[in-house]
Amino acid sequence: MKRALYLVLFLATAATLLASPVRPSTELGLWSEGTQLRGANLWQRRVYPELDGLDFLGPGPFGPPIAMEDFVALAAHGANWVQLSVPGLFTEQEPYQPDWAAVDNLDTLIAMADAAGLFVTITFRTGPGRSEFSILRDEAGVWFDQSYLEERVWTDPQARDAWAAMWEFTARRYREQKAVIGYDLMCEPNASDIVQEWDPHAFQARYAGSGYDWSSWYPKLALAIRRVDQETPILIQPDGYASPEWASILAPPPVSACVLAVHPYDPHAYTHQSKTEAWFRKRVYPGRFDADDDGKPEQVDALWIASMLGQAQAAAQAMGIPVCANEYGVMRWQPGAAAYLSDMLECFEDYGWNHALWEWKPAYKGYDEVNAFDFTRAAELDRLMRASWLQNRYRP
């Protein structure tokens, strides 16, 4: 019954698009000609039975399981873009080589997204010398052992060369896929966290040219892609977990058709408040609180958001490339969450950015307990996102 409902909703959405104008003539036009793409992230990681048990993320090797109905439901909600935030196609450990289970998995995800009428961007969370746990490194010793933390890509030139080989392999495989409109080089580069330097300019002064300097070696990945695919846009995130603030030190790309991609979860102290925090209900949006951990309160409102996002806008303009927010969001229970999300969406549209929310929840029941960012469980947030996504005009 649910699948039939999703199909009806999707067909109704698709019918409204039949009379829509012709999409931009180039893939880059989808990124550079105002807001054209509005959607969400679908996430997977490798399954570790010793950590995850038998049901939480499914039987593996990647989870949570994502089915055709998940893509159809996303399209029926009005989205025209899915960011596949997934493990890379090469092994994390030496010898660095294609992981054919990951390849088969991504092949299937892209085919389903295309069939549902969704544009696709691919972002790799893992790859040679980098595990999923690096993005979660502050939880090491809490629910996973330090031994799972693989981060040698920042110190091992061979691992970095293998990332370039992985992207050349990926671009060669998917360059003819019309639904694939972006390669996102790495999900949330985070050398800044590894070396514990949170000021971008201080970081640059100390680490420029080293393996920790993402700007010094991401160009190799872009050049590897362009050896086999000259057209598909390349999305580049700055360090600092793709913070807009860190865009100011990102080196300009050495190839054409690139996009600056940021993850503006700011202020993190607000968007990620736990219900059990002593501060909960004191950090309210809009409101006055310490938003950047400098010990001083700021007025956090639409002007604050415009200024925060403006850091990425200014950096991109200096490089002559467009910007997107391919991850953003707020835990659904935050006080003022609807006002915050509304102001973020309005600013994205004003700046002409494409935007992909974190996250779209798959229907798989074992993963149901992880739902802090599931906007469909909050009626006001759900109405906001539907209204935003129904502005979409183009599909593959």
Q: Going across the major beta sheet, what is the strand order?
A: 1-4-5-6-7-8-11-12
CATH top-level class: Alpha Beta
Average pLDDT level: 94
Assign an overall shape: globular
* Estimated helix fraction: 25-40%
Question: What's the helix count?
Answer: 14
Radius of gyration: 20 Å
CATH architecture: Alpha-Beta Barrel
Given as residue ranges, the uncertain stretches (5+ residues, pLDDT < 50) are 15-20
Report the order of strands and helices: HHEEHEHEHEHEHHHEHEHEEHEHEH
Give the N-terminus to C-terminus distance in angstroms: 27 Å
Question: How is the biggest beta sheet arranged?
Answer: 8 strands, parallel, barrel
Domain module tally: 1
Category from helices, strands and their pairing:
alpha/beta
Our estimate of the beta-strand percent is 5-15%
List keywords for this structure.
37% helix, alpha/beta, 14 helices
Description:
37% of the residues lie in helices and 12% in strands. The protein has helices spanning 2-17, 29-32, 49-52, 68-76, 100-115, 157-174, 191-195, 200-207, 214-226, 239-242, 268-271, 302-319, 337-351, 379-389, and strands at residues 38-43, 45-46, 62-63, 81-86, 119-124, 180-184, 234-236, 258-262, 287-289, 298-300, 323-325, 354-357. Helix 5 links the parallel strand 4 and strand 5 (119-124). It is globular.
Quick recap of the structure?
The chain has 14 helices and twelve strands. The chain has helices at residues 2-17, 29-32, 49-52, 68-76, 100-115, 157-174, 191-195, 200-207, 214-226, 239-242, 268-271, 302-319, 337-351, 379-389, and strands at 38-43, 45-46, 62-63, 81-86, 119-124, 180-184, 234-236, 258-262, 287-289, 298-300, 323-325, 354-357.
